[in-house]
Specification:
heterodimer; A: alpha/beta; TIM Barrel; B: alpha/beta; Rossmann fold; 6-stranded mixed β-sheet; 4-stranded parallel β-sheet; 14 strands; globular; Aldolase_TIM (chain A); aromatic amino acid biosynthesis (chain A); Trp_synthase_alpha_AS (chain A)
């Protein structure tokens, strides 16, 4: 059983998945941020590989990509970051990336290095099932879970195709659009969670637009297995520029608040 | 690769949110292609509104200078001042048939933005155009033209603030608003079915060139030269000649020289990668980060290229080369002075390559240059460059 499947199997409550851009604003500070997130109570850590042209991301995460690249982040350093986190924690780690950094490195080499560093899964934002053949084979060979996105406008007939390839969990996008904090959740989310559930036996994690404890509770009440928070975390990192200690404190507090919200939800 | 493969290039490397809209677009386009009513409507707009066919002009002075028979395919005379109108009219008509209430576009030099604004105005659909702030500064005239035509120009302040960044923003808008919004892509780039749709709408350039040169000379040309940014004017004129014994030459932006690293010569100096939804050649570093580009011409200042061009390069069917900013500027002046035609800086790259290619040609050899656009939009910028050098 993969580390992610094991975590979900043992779970007694909805999960909190937290995302940060690897290397934002520099590799050392990014490690400190990741550890603060884990200490705050995140159940799964998603690490974004910065890319110059992330078309699925909104402005907050795009700016973090720019900061990380300006801070000298490379794919080698992403793997070093994963290794450093793994030395300190058993938290499941998902690498989230645009396809080009994977393609250029080579699917097989990328998967080998990701696994070797201690990553558990890969989510490629612009690699739909139709294009994922080469990557999928490499990920399977290296026992990496393959997380796929399900969008609000994904037709029901595509769900079996996506579920057939995915492992670990399914990432249900809560809103039509790019990543970013939003005021409220789409009221149709419960129906979408149910639709995905009926097509797949995998845990369902809901992301995009989630920033507040009440969002987490709403998602948990709607039957999701996990809530994913990204831009809100990235914004905290962005706001604390040079002060790593203040950033860590703010991250710990924020993630803890979101994790408590998950624990208090109706699923318990 | 599932759909839209050009010899292994192309594809649909997009977020899941765009898979359904792309499928909707592909289906709508197949239906429109087979619909005589749609085709007739498009032909009517192209002929009566846009001014097709455009002339094939024999250049007496340039032919004497260069020592071969030089023709220009005059897309500069198309309504809007560039070949972009062929594609924008086709796609805007498609948007209308699909019942879309809003059209978005991206633009580099502004020509595609102007063409989309024109098409939106005549077909009665609101248009919003993403444009990098750097490009807005160097193409002020086209920004004003778009606004005059009723389009909203949205400044893009991310990245290098050029065409690549405008494409990113347009894609993000489309990811968010795909239900009611049509994304009118400006070149033969992007995810399937765009490279096919745009190529089909631009093929008219090559089809006309073919019949016009046969009428004028009684034979096919020896070589055809076109500039390549994303590559839509080039694929438009090349495509009907792919199975003929005609040399096809695509000219990229050599900028300050390929060795300088400051250029937009994707096929000459790039490697395979995925950008904006397609696998193609790309200017990138060893980690797959997309590199900054440079060209004196905003329309060629793009690190990617259409996937069909990548296939044609690997197949050896089209020769791709690059000319520098200085060579393009010299050609800009040359064509203006010798033929009374001010070419777009993009097209000036093709003219510059014609000067080079003519060295290897005989007096009776026929050279066709695709004059993809007119240079009015560039006059101010070129004046600034030339003034600065005096």
């Amino acid at each position: 059983m993969s580390r992610i499947a094991g975590a979900f199997a043992g779970a007694k409550r909805p999960f909190l998945v937290a995302y940060l851009v690897g290397g934002d604003p520099d590799p050392a500070t990014s490690l400190a941020a990741a550890m603060a997130i884990v200490e705050g109570g995140a159940d799964i850590l998603e690490i974004g590989i910065p890319f110059t042209d992330p078309i699925a991301d909104g402005p907050v995460i795009q700016e973090a990509n720019v900061r990380a690249l300006a801070g000298g982040m490379t794919t080698d350093k992403i793997f070093a970051l994963v290794r450093a986190i793994r030395e300190r924690s058993g938290v499941p780690i998902v690498l989230m990336t645009s396809y080009n950094p994977v393609y250029v490195r080579g699917d097989a080499r990328f998967c080998h290095e990701a696994r070797d560093a201690g990553a558990d899964a890969v989510l490629i934002t612009d690699l739909p099932p139709e294009e994922s053949g080469a990557f999928d084979a490499a990920a399977r060979e290296h026992a990496l879970d393959r997380i796929f996105l399900v969008a609000p406008n994904t037709p029901p007939e595509r769900l079996p195709l996506i579920a057939g390839l995915a492992s670990g969990f399914l990432y249900l996008v809560s809103v039509q659009g790019v990543t970013g904090v939003r005021e409220s959740l789409d009221p149709a989310i419960a129906r979408r969670i149910a639709a995905v559930r009926s097509a797949a036996s995998l845990p369902v994690a809901v992301g995009f637009g989630i920033s507040r404890p009440e969002h987490v509770r709403a998602i948990a009440d709607a039957g999701a297995d996990a809530a994913i928070v990204g831009s809100a975390v990235v914004r905290i990192i962005g706001e604390h520029g040079g002060d790593a200690a203040a950033m860590q404190a703010a991250l710990r507090a924020y993630v803890a608040g979101m994790a408590v919200a998950a624990r208090r939800s109706g699923a318990l | 690769m599932n759909a839209g493969s050009f010899g292994g290039f192309g594809g649909q490397f997009v977020p899941e949110s765009l898979m359904a809209p792309l499928q909707e677009l592909a289906s709508a386009y197949e239906a429109a292609k087979a619909d005589p009513g749609f085709q007739e409507e498009l032909q009517t707009y192209l002929a009566e509104f846009a001014g097709r066919p455009t002339p094939l002009t024999f250049c007496r002075n340039l032919s004497a200078d260069l020592g071969c028979r030089v023709y220009l395919k005059r897309e500069d005379l198309l309504h809007g001042g560039a070949h972009k109108t062929n594609n924008a009219l086709g796609q805007a008509l498609l948007a209308k048939h699909m019942g879309k209430r809003r059209i978005i576009a991206e633009t580099g030099a502004g020509q595609h933005g102007v063409a989309t604004a024109i098409a939106g105005a005549v077909l009665g659909i609101p248009v919003e155009v993403y444009m990098g702030e750097t490009d807005m500064a160097r193409q002020r005239l086209n920004v004003f033209r778009m606004e005059l035509l009723g389009a909203r120009v949205i400044p893009v302040a991310t990245g290098q603030r050029t065409l690549k960044d405008a494409v990113n923003e347009a894609l993000r808008d489309w990811v968010t608003n795909a239900g009611e919004t049509y994304y009118c892509l400006g070149s033969v780039v992007g995810p399937h079915p765009y490279p096919t749709i745009v190529r089909d709408f631009q093929r008219v350039i090559g089809e006309e060139t073919r019949s016009q040169i046969l009428r004028a000379e009684g034979r096919l040309p020896d070589a055809i030269i076109a500039c390549v940014g994303g590559g839509s004017n080039a694929i438009g004129i090349f495509h009907p000649f792919l199975n003929d014994p005609v040399r096809l030459i695509g000219v990229e932006a050599g900028g300050r020289g390929l060795e300088s690293g400051e250029h937009g010569a994707t096929l000459c100096a790039g490697t395979k990668g995925v950008l904006h939804g397609a696998l193609s050649y790309l200017l990138q570093d060893a980690d797959g980060q997309v590199l900054e580009t440079h060209s004196v011409s905003a329309g060629l200042d793009y690190p990617g290229v259409g996937p069909e061009h990548s296939m044609l390069k690997d197949a050896g069917r089209v020769a791709y080369t690059a000319v520098t900013d200085d060579e393009a500027l010299a050609a800009f002046s040359l064509l203006s002075r010798r033929e009374g035609i001010v070419p777009a800086l993009e097209s000036s790259h093709a003219v510059a390559q014609a000067v080079k290619a003519a060295e290897e040609m005989e007096r009776d050899d026929i050279l066709v240059v695709n004059l993809s656009g007119r240079g009015d939009k560039d006059v101010e910028g070129v004046a600034a460059i030339m003034g600065g050098r005096r």
